[in-house]
Structure formats: structure tokens, C-alpha cells
Amino acid sequence: KENGRNSFCFFSKELSAQVNAKAELASALRHALKDFSEFELYYQPKVSADTGKVVAVEALIRWHHPCLGLVSPARFIPLAEELGLIVPLGEWVLEQGCQDYMRLCELGIRLDHISINVSNVQLDDDAFPSTLDRVLRESGIIPDALELEITESYIARQPGQARERLQYFRDRGVRLAVDDFGTGYSAMNTLQSMPVTRIKIDKSFVDGLPCDSNSVALTRAVVSLAKNFKLALTAEGVETAAQLDFLSAEKCDEVQGFYFSMPVTFDHLITYCRDNKA
Ligand code: C2E
Ligand code: CA
Ligand code: CA
Ligand code: CA
């Protein structure tokens, strides 16, 4: 009985600590959204599997909190989504990313595109299409140089609504990639009917390459799907030469991962591009 009471106390303390931590993180996030100065976009090079040269970049947000230090997007993006704060945050990411792409152009670094992650909550926001139009106009980026990374769950959830919204983006000339493909349970005929231009093989498949037979089978299935649907193909999370060799032999056109580079600051990206651009 005594133990029972103690363990009840223990759990309730732990739970309330968790609730407090979440509430504190939420208030810190609201504060950070006042001027965005604690946020920074990092960039991970996307590399041609053929040449090993950088062809594009993916923007990945970082949050430098004055006390908590670097907070991982895996921790604060879900919270920002839950609180609806992803809408202003995502708008900032889109603006900053397009501006940085244009700065690269001014420096003579012409990349094929910049990829920006867009949350389901942003896509569902009725103001998002006009936000996108405004950012395209104000940044001056060619729409074809902007690729939005959407999740597979977005197209799986409400295919009809997704198709309509994605078509709006395609009509403007923006490219669309399905991120983390293979983890979101979308039906093949759903994918086929979506106006997307690329699929990204999830890291969890790449991890098992080239030895694990399930990973090999799944990767080959996604490669042939991309070929048949005439979609560009990126593999993420490439960490070893053996993974690269396998993906390159399978004719996956674009690869990214720690084998080439971790996500880096804009200044480091400039250096990386100068050293590794065709
Ligand atoms: P994601 O879009 O799937 O991004 C890939 C994640 O894997 C990134 O983590 C990247 O740093 C990491 N990564 C890349 N290559 C490797 C590798 O070779 N090995 C390993 N172990 N990891 C690798 P990160 O930057 O922590 O981002 C986590 C997730 O947070 C992203 O997953 C994305 O879903 C979300 N996220 C990041 N930035 C944004 C953003 O601006 N907007 C939205 N909506 N979501 C974002
Ligand atoms: Ca992504
Ligand atoms: Ca991904
Ligand atoms: Ca992933």
C-alpha cells in the first residue's frame, strides 16, 4: 500500500514536470516568434548520385534558445503544429529560404532548387496559397527553383483536398516532393493521381542498404515506382559509400546524408558549394 502511494506520487510528479516542461517550451516558442532572432536555417546539400556534386539544398530549421541551447526541430515542430504556431514559423522559413537561395545566385552559386519542408497544418491553412504567391513575388525566386517537401500523410489523409491544393502550387510552377516516402501508408493510385514531381526514399530504408534484403526490396520497389510515374527520386540519410554505390547503381538521381554533409550554416554552405559544385 505504502509503495503504491509512493509510486502514485512519483508518477504524478513526473507527469506534472512533463506538463510544465511542455508549457515552458510553448511559452518560449511564442516568445521566439516575436522577432525570429533565435531561429536559423541550416542547409543540407543534395548531391547528384552520378557526379557527387551539389545540385540543390534542403532547408532545416534550428532554434537557439538562450537557456535550453539548441532545441531539435523533432521536439519543437510537433509542438508548433499543435499550437498553430507553425503557420508564422513556416512562413518565416519560406521567406528566409527563398532569400538565401537568391543570395546564392548573387554569389554565382546556381543550384537547381531549394527544398523547404511544409507541415500539414500549413498546407491546411487557407492563407497558405496567398502566402506562397507573396513570397514568390517578393523574393524574385523562379518558381521552378522552389520545391516544397510535403509528407506522405498529407496526400493519404484527404486525397481530394490535397490534390486540389497541390495542383494550385504546380500551376504556379513550384515543384512538390513527397518526403519520407514509404512511411505514410498512401495508396499507389493516390500517389499516381497527385501532381507531385519527386519522391524521397525515407532514411529507414536507406539504413539497411546494401545488406538487409527487406531494405533492398523496398528501395527497388520505390525506384521502379518513381521510374514508372516519371518522378525524380532522392534518397535521404545516406551515411556510407556502400549505400551510395547501391543507390547510384539503382539510378537514384539525387542523394543526401551525413556521408556528404550534415546540415550546415548558410556561410558553411557557401564554402561547401564553392568546393563541391560542378
Ligand atoms: P526531415 O525533413 O526528414 O529531415 C531529415 C532529417 O534527418 C534532418 O533532421 C537531418 O538533419 C537528418 N539527417 C540528414 N541526413 C542524415 C544522415 O545521414 N543521418 C542521420 N542520422 N540523420 C540525417 P533535423 O534537421 O533534426 O529535422 C528533423 C525533422 O524536423 C525533419 O525531418 C522535418 O520533418 C522537420 N523539420 C525541420 N525543419 C523544418 C521546417 O523548416 N519546417 C517543417 N515543417 N519541418 C521541419
Ligand atoms: Ca524533408
Ligand atoms: Ca525526410
Ligand atoms: Ca525522414
From TrEMBL:
UniProt key word Zinc: no
Keywords (A to Z) from UniProt: Membrane, Transmembrane, Transmembrane helix
Complete-protein stretch covered: 560 to 837 of 837
Domain EAL: 22-277
Lineage summary: Bacteria, Pseudomonadati, Pseudomonadota, Gammaproteobacteria, Oceanospirillales
Name of this chain's protein: GGDEF-domain containing protein
Biological process, per Gene Ontology: signal transduction
An annotated GO cellular component: membrane
